[in-house]
Give the backbone structure.
Amino acid sequence: MTGLESISSGTPRESCIPVLETARLVLRAPRLGDAKAVTALANDRHIAENTARIPHPYRLADAKDWIGGANTSADEEQFVITLANGTLIGACGLDHREGPTPSIGYWLGQAHWRKGYATEAVRALIDHAFADLEHDSLLASARVTNPASRRVLEKCGFQWNGVGLCRIRALGSSVPVDRKSTRLNSSHIT
């Protein structure tokens, strides 16, 4: 983690979102200038059908709404994922709305799949949640039809807790998901 970043909309909560850096990635708060890149990446049925809140089609107004609402309360921390050169490749975040144990969510544009970026971003988010936010456990879920996302979670130390249902906005229905959790241990802190 490198410190705080100034956000164009400048709300006090947004100015408290840290910048997380890994060997190849930078995770930072979304900015209004990211809207076109977010739209181009998220307007993909494969992404929408594997995430809870992304609609399909995904329009510029959806990106602006997400960016405008991101990090405006203590209930969540939202990050865009960029390569070290600044190219936006996806998003991730921590969601505290369902209870005291936060959930992790993430997505990447298809051109960036199978390169280890999701695992790298999720590990950075886990380290931040445990070391900086002092959580002792995290939750996550992945569609049972999405083995790549399940593998990302397993590589990051998540253990299977069972199967549940998750409402997918793009589908307008609920689908089965594998529920996973991880607890703080010394192997998570880098």
